[in-house]
Amino acid sequence: MNKELQMRLFTLDWRLEDLEDLQEIGRQNFQTSIEKEPGTFFMAMGAEKEQPERTYVIEIYADENAYKTHAASQHFQAFASFAVDHLQGRQVVNLTPEVLVEKEGGLSLLQASNQQLRIEHLTIKENQIAAFKGVVAKEMKQSIKLEEGVQLLFAASVTEQPDEWIFIELYQDQEAYDKHRETSHFKTYIQKTKDMVLDKRLQVLTPQLVVSRGTF
Questions:
Q1: Burial 30-61 (b: 16+ CB within 10 A, else e)
Q2: CATH numbers and ranges of domains, the chain
Q3: Locate the ABM domain: which residues (predicted)?
Q4: Residue 2, pLDDT score
Q5: For residue range 109-136, what is the model confidence (pLDDT) as tens digits?
Q6: How far, in Å, CA of 44 to CA of 51, rounded?
Q7: What percentage of the chain's residues is helix, strand, coil (to nearest 5)?
Q8: Is the model's pLDDT at 139 over the cut of 80?
Q9: Among the listed residues 129, 131, 153, 132, the one whose alpha carbon sits nearest the alpha carbon of residue 142
């Protein structure tokens, strides 16, 4: 995996009355970024149905310079200005990409849909990290190749805590995820890693905005 890649997970808290404006200014930022910034590879925003005022944003850039180019852009500055006035809370986690796979051709989802965005947090036994990565990589590549409803599967470790992993997954809908869980490669992954994983926590999000170049 390219060590220059910049990947981050943001948790952003807003007021409910600001969400409609957030969707529009976020759409402008995402759409313009993917159209005009060659180094912007992936951006996604989603929220849990039970807590729509807390949004999760995942971003991947080619390198630090690509991120700086994005941060200096007029469209991002418009978003940043909106955030100054309306953002209620912000957390950021720096991630190290481990395995990134997605369907070819890129992706542009600029409004809420029936697709399902899942964020899974795992704690891996420290002496099993390399083995875990090997199993994960094989399963993810098979899923993208064989399953029409699997749009992307990203696995990353927390940069400051490499035994903490975060999975970002996008499925066509709930049915696609259910079918994924019944595949032989997914069941093999679960069986082989059950003794490697110490803890697991899942968030199911409604994707509000997703753009990707299909780089991976």
A1: bbbbbeebebbbbbbbbbbeeeebbbbbbbbb
A2: 6-212 (3.30.70.100)
A3: 6-99, 116-205
A4: 82
A5: 987 678 999 999 999 999 999 999 999 9
A6: 17
A7: 40, 40, 20
A8: yes
A9: 153
Listed residue (95, 94, 90) closest to 54, CA to CA: 90
Tens of pLDDT, residues 58-94: 999 999 999 999 999 999 999 999 999 999 999 999 9
Helices (H), 37-147: 64-71, 74-86, 129-146
Single pTM value for the model: 0.95
Give the SS3 label for residue 72.
coil
Tokens of 59: 């971003």
Amino acid 4 reads: E
- Where is 207: in which H helix or E strand? strand 197-212
